[in-house]
Specification:
Order of helices and strands: EHHHEHEEEHEEHEEEEEHEHEEEHEEEEH
Distance between the termini: 44 Å
Strand content: 25-35%
Shape: globular
Low-confidence stretches: 1-42
Mean pLDDT: 87
Structural class: alpha+beta
Number of strands: 20
Number of helices: 10
Radius of gyration: 24 Å
Largest sheet: 6 strands, antiparallel
Helix content: 25-40%
């Protein structure tokens, strides 16, 4: 991978965390800051670091709980605060750990047990363990309720709480108390690195359902593999249409959205235009011959569809290639550059905005689908095949 990549990643926002604490020994880091700014900045001749070091000293001298005065956190927190002062939610500093996690997520990797969780009647439930995952190997089954995690009851837990407690570093253990057929069983699972697919392929009668979860490192390769299978079935008249599911896709690499759009559009068509001061304006056009240009297509979007997924959905809409079904998308129209810094840290900087082929800048507005369908799910449950009205509508349109 290149060190610098233009991204539209919304998912990295989950790592924007303000760290409050302290940094290394004053002398060590004071010399570091001095070397970075040995004299007042020409643009800000009256700015110096006296106030910074005065505050640093007072914290170290006076704070009641010295165990919380962590020098490394103070150093990184100062950088975070500097970047946050710009007040752009998409421009942020990542600590080395956060930067690594961001790259792992875009690479489709995390460490945990490998199980898809959901809610049913406000209880945490296993929707399905991933194939060959630690969860499957430990005997976890679809439909198991998770009553406890490491002895702590999951009553009133949110889904995100459950995920955060069950995930963890590889080779560490987590104990789940499961309920199956009204009986409790305990399983201890050793966490491992889990690889998540960017692209999922399934079929409903003669309709292809192609779900794209994000635009990451492996998306194009996984896409090509799925497309080869679809192309063969389309050529043999085994399928009649395709549902491209971009719901809850937070985005990723801008180039990935252009690559996927090119599967459905003629050569030379404009997919997205990038407007930037630093790099200048740039047009991204179809530069390869796609193999799914004729297959009937419906695209699913919702409020979780953002950035790169909005580019793809918007381009297909603007060129009248697909009908959009679902709910209004998130509305993120900016481009970030991901920079690798010293010590493994990272910086994401907004460097451009993008507009759709028809000239729309959808930032904070989102994309309105032509056919609006809302999935109404009973409180305490997650969506299921039976309750997915959006997918049902998309299939209906393709089978008319």
């Amino acid at each position: 991978m290149k060190n610098n990549k233009l991204t539209n990643a919304l998912l990295v926002l989950s790592f924007i965390i303000l760290i409050f604490g302290s940094g290394y020994k004053i002398g060590e880091y004071k010399s570091r800051f001095t070397s970075l700014n040995p004299k007042p900045n020409a643009l800000n001749p009256n700015i110096n670091f006296d106030l910074f070091w005065e505050t640093w000293n007072k914290l170290q001298e006076r704070y009641v709980d010295q165990k919380k005065v962590d020098p490394k956190k103070m150093y990184l927190g100062a950088i975070k605060g500097m970047v946050a002062s710009i007040e752009d939610p998409y421009t942020f500093f990542l600590t080395p750990d956060e930067n690594k996690q961001t790259k792992d997520d875009l690479g489709g990797k995390f460490e945990g047990i490998g199980a898809q969780l959901g809610l049913k009647d406000n209880r945490i439930i296993i929707i399905a363990p991933l194939k060959k995952s630690p969860a499957e190997n430990a005997g976890v089954k679809p439909g198991d309720y998770i009553n406890k995690v490491d002895g702590v009851a999951t009553i009133k837990w949110t889904l995100s709480q459950a995920v955060s407690k069950i995930r963890g570093p590889k080779n560490t253990k987590v104990k789940l108390t499961l309920e199956r057929n009204n009986k409790e069983i305990e399983v201890t699972i050793v966490r491992q690195q889990i690889i998540i697919s960017s692209v999922e392929l399934s079929y409903e009668n003669k309709i292809v359902i192609l779900k794209v979860n994000q635009f990451g490192d492996n998306t194009n390769d996984e896409w090509n593999k799925a497309v080869r299978e679809i192309e063969e079935k389309w050529s043999n008249k085994q399928v009649a249409g395709l549902v491209l599911d971009l719901r809850d896709n937070p985005g990723g690499y801008l180039d990935g959205s252009v690559y996927l759009a090119s599967e459905f559009l003629p050569l030379g068509k404009l997919v997205v235009k990038q407007e930037a001061t630093l790099y200048g304006d740039k047009e991204y056009r179809v530069s390869r011959i796609g193999v799914l240009r004729e297959i009937p297509l419906v695209v699913l979007i919702n409020k979780g569809s953002a950035s790169a997924s909005e580019i793809l959905a918007g381009a297909l809409r603007d060129h009248n290639r697909a009908q959009l079904v679902g709910e209004k998308s998130f509305g993120k129209g900016s481009v970030q550059e991901a920079l690798d810094l010293k010590e493994g840290a990272g910086l994401h900087v907004t460097v451009a905005k993008w507009v759709l082929p028809n000239g729309d800048w959808i930032n904070s507005k989102g994309i309105e689908p032509k056919i609006k369908v809302t999935n109404e799910i009973k409180d305490g449950n997650t969506i299921s095949k039976e309750t997915d009205k959006q997918l049902e509508k998309a299939i209906e349109l393709l089978t008319k």
